[in-house]
């Protein structure tokens, strides 16, 4: 079924306002979820709402807390998200970095005491909209088993990178692991199997039952009870296909987030503080030359790649192509919603006594 | 067989001096190759020498040309390598960035008109030796087939990231593709099969014959004759295991190198200019807190990861662990050398009438 993005936005703003977020913050939070659904990133759209509300009720998320700047230089920013939603501190940080980078060429921010921030691409796209290269990363709950390990330790740490191009920017946005936990969640909600080598059990055997994988992830991510198993690093189950590179990529994000923020590393977010950390970087390509030239040359490269010889029945897509195609289509036809999430939305609306959005 | 690293260094300095590099540049070039061999990265060690010499003889490498600074700000540096070896401009750029970052918190450099620069980790380790986070990247000859493509287009673009830790820094250093072309080259030289899904033919079938793969790579990387086939992106042959993430990672390096440098993208380095481009970034963690605390916390995380439950007969290693172990061992026992490279070294020595190093 589908829901119009305008109705989704209105509903979400109502829910967040009802949970004591400021009007401005409610609008931002709604926008990040609608934006993900429009881009076809259902794993990070409205299906997360029930989970966010659980964290608000548990006190993990503190809707009225204000963002605090702890340290600032002309090129850097250390921010305390103050246990509010990650989206709020992240949008704040990225707006600041854009100003700094336009003055000094590049700048970086670290956020501590944060929560889930939605899609990483939301923030790196803020930078590219201003003609800058944007990088956004976060750690997460522990979901990912390092190379050779039989238990989860790393987050499915997200990484986004954007670069100016036409007709839309280059947008790489995804978990550094083979898939995000959210992608497995969506398949489990829809009773579909895992199509690839994504998850392992406690003996590092690959499993394809999405619900079995989701059961493992729910334990490793949210409890101290480590039964073993988790999501694989990019590169799969075996060292012979260099899965230690995917492991390394995820570890780099751990260093830039939890370690630089002096917050929890992903492995410790299932106990105690539940805090996430984020890292952002913006670079101004104009210090090296003309912005239009860079965008034109990048666009020309992408056009050549899309036109390369390929296997029959497939298509070569540049990171961002699918998202922008989805965006324009879903703006017209409404965003996709699975039945379980629709039921959750009804329940949330009833509890708050607000209008249930129309599903079609 | 093995060769002592001291003799390797002396031999290499003699070769580079004989090919008209300055004494300082010869020492640097020798150091980068000895360093790779000591760390067990044979693909980027002395086995590259014959290839470098071919490029010197062809005029692709111009040993006497001086590095030129084209643009400079307090946070950035645009460098022209002036067709000399990539190592020379890269070490120059990284030394400059270290100074800048200590003053302003972070800085970046782009190099154009460059050549192969050895291992990326050599430069990011220069930054970490000064307490900074280091990032080093390069594009390369076209070797890698994008997701679904049946022909090579991307470089096996290298990426290194270093972070302070004990007893040695975190050093992630590798091709963004499933493996570097050099790794296939070494297996072909040793008549060994490819152990994983690394290379494809012109119909995107995985091939395991190293010499067949090397024959494909020699054509796609060095001639305009595109027969199809190449190296796979990290994530393997199929979209279902997210090989588009490996594709995205390689594309990011294309943007930061060839595009920002306004040089050739990897796809165009097999014709015309043969120029490579490099990108470097250094960050000072001290702007966010105490360096010792970061290194201590990173070290504690790595210790926990090494001690995780794992499959029998395996070991969990942190990026850098293997390299530093190799380094200390090979410093004692000498670096490994394959027969074909030993034969090449003898030939090079005879042509220059310099002493052949002792093999044992």
Automatic annotation (TrEMBL), chains A, B:
<dbReference type="InterPro" id="IPR036111">
    <property type="entry name" value="Mal/L-sulfo/L-lacto_DH-like_sf"/>
</dbReference>
<dbReference type="InterPro" id="IPR043143">
    <property type="entry name" value="Mal/L-sulf/L-lact_DH-like_NADP"/>
</dbReference>
<comment type="similarity">
    <text>Belongs to the LDH2/MDH2 oxidoreductase family.</text>
</comment>
<dbReference type="Pfam" id="PF02615">
    <property type="entry name" value="Ldh_2"/>
</dbReference>
<protein>
    <submittedName>
        <fullName>Malate L-lactate dehydrogenase</fullName>
    </submittedName>
</protein>
<dbReference type="InterPro" id="IPR003767">
    <property type="entry name" value="Malate/L-lactate_DH-like"/>
</dbReference>
<keyword id="KW-0560">Oxidoreductase</keyword>
<dbReference type="GO" id="GO:0016491">
    <property type="term" value="F:oxidoreductase activity"/>
</dbReference>
<dbReference type="InterPro" id="IPR043144">
    <property type="entry name" value="Mal/L-sulf/L-lact_DH-like_ah"/>
</dbReference>
């Amino acid at each position: 079924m589908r829901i119009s993005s305008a109705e989704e936005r209105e509903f979400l703003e109502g829910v967040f306002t009802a949970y004591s977020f400021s009007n401005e913050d409610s609008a931002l939070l709604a926008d990040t979820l609608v934006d993900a659904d429009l881009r076809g990133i259902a794993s990070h759209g409205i299906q997360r709402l029930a989970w966010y509300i659980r964290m608000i009720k548990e006190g993990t998320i503190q809707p009225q807390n204000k963002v605090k700047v702890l340290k600032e230089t002309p090129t850097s920013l250390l921010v305390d998200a103050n246990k509010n939603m990650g989206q709020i501190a992240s949008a704040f940080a990225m707006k600041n970095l854009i100003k700094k980078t336009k003055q000094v060429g590049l700048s970086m921010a670290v956020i501590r005491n944060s929560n889930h921030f939605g899609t990483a691409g939301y923030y790196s796209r803020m930078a590219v909209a201003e003609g800058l290269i944007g990088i956004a990363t976060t750690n997460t709950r522990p979901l990912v088993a390092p190379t050779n390990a039989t238990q989860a330790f790393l987050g499915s740490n997200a990484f986004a990178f954007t670069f100016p191009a036409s007709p839309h920017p280059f947008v790489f946005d995804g978990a550094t692991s083979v898939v995000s936990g959210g992608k497995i969640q969506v398949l489990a909600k829809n009773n579909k199997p895992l199509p690839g080598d994504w998850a392992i059990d406690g003996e590092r055997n690959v499993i394809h039952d999405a619900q079995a994988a989701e059961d493992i992830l729910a334990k490793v991510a949210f409890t101290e009870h480590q039964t073993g198993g988790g999501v694989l690093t990019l590169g799969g189950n075996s060292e012979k296909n260099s899965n230690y590179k995917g492991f390394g990529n995820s570890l780099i994000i751990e260093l830039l987030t939890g370690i630089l923020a002096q917050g929890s590393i992903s492995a410790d977010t299932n106990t105690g503080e539940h805090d996430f950390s984020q890292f952002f970087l913006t670079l101004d390509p104009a210090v090296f030359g003309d912005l239009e030239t860079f965008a034109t040359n990048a666009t020309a490269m992408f056009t050549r790649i899309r036109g390369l010889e390929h296997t029959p029945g497939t298509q070569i897509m540049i990171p961002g192509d699918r998202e922008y195609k989805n965006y324009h289509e879903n703006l017209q036809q409404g965003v996709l919603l699975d039945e379980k999430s629709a039921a959750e939305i009804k329940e949330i609306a009833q509890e708050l006594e607000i209008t249930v959005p129309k599903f079609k």
